[in-house]
Prior knowledge:
GO molecular function: carbohydrate binding
Subcellular location: Cell envelope
Signal peptide: 1-15
Order of helices and strands: EHEHEHEEHEHEHEHEHEHEEH
Domain Periplasmic binding protein: 21-264
Structural class: alpha/beta
Pfam family, one: Peripla_BP_4
Strand content: 15-25%
Helix content: 40-55%
Bound molecules: alpha-L-arabinofuranose
Amino acid sequence: LLATTIILAPLSANAADKTVGFSQIGSESGWRAAETTVTKQQAEARGVTLKFADAQQKQENQIKAIRGFVAQGVDAILLAPVVATGWDEVLEEAKEAEIPVILLDRTVDAEKSLYMTAVTSDLVHEGEVAGKWLKDEVAGKDCNIVELQGTTGSSPAIDRKKGFEQGIAGADNLKIVRSQTGDFTRAQGKVVMESFLKAEGAENICALYAHNDDMAVGAIQAIKEAGAKPGTDILIVSIDSVPDIHLAMDAGEANATVELTPNMAGPAFDALEAYWKDGTLPAKWVQTESKLYTLKDDNKAIYESKKSLGY
Ligand code: AHR
């Protein structure tokens, strides 16, 4: 029978003896690639053996990878869940095998007892920060917004949409006229922005809200090809703070981004090390910071410093 609290594998203080499985979503964005790099660096620095599985955007591959990690008897599992639902069964299996699971960067709709902790930003807050920024920026002028959503069914797509709507709530001058998924990729961001431009006309779009920077970068290309000026004719606000968006901001082609750290693994390994040392369990949510960058910041310098962080 499953216990209601997590009772996990025998304790041994030394992280260097440990093997951790990491089920990563894929490499849809620059941010995702950076998270993978940082996770590998964090494991290496702590002497943890990391087993890495790239799910190529498919939940079924993630479920297979987790089952594989359980069969191998790893000491812990890191999971960046592609979508929010459908995890209960496999998380029960890990729990039954007494293997702690830590969620990275996205949340799941499952019982909290099925995972040790979730290291994520406040995804609703990120959207809200973006919405409030836009509301202040347009200062009462009428503004038609187009929205590029992240992967359908993923917690950042759901929460960033909700947060943005909260951020612009009460401003009758702001209206979301089109909203569609661009799957968090640059290529889809461009394709979907092209369709928005075609449907609305560039002159009728005042702002783009993209759930990540990669889609915004793809959309910037589409806007330029349509003969309009991104950052001026169409304001651009997005999330992640990857180097390329700062380069675009430095060129005046994007306006604001909300930072998401790619270092989710650091706090996750800290929690595991504390647990392995003396059984300390972390809080159910380890929240990372969300910082807004705008054209007021030194975007060239930010670009350069981010480039050295594994992006
Ligand atoms: O879950 C975090 C999101 O996933 C990032 O914002 C996005 O770039 C990534 O693909």
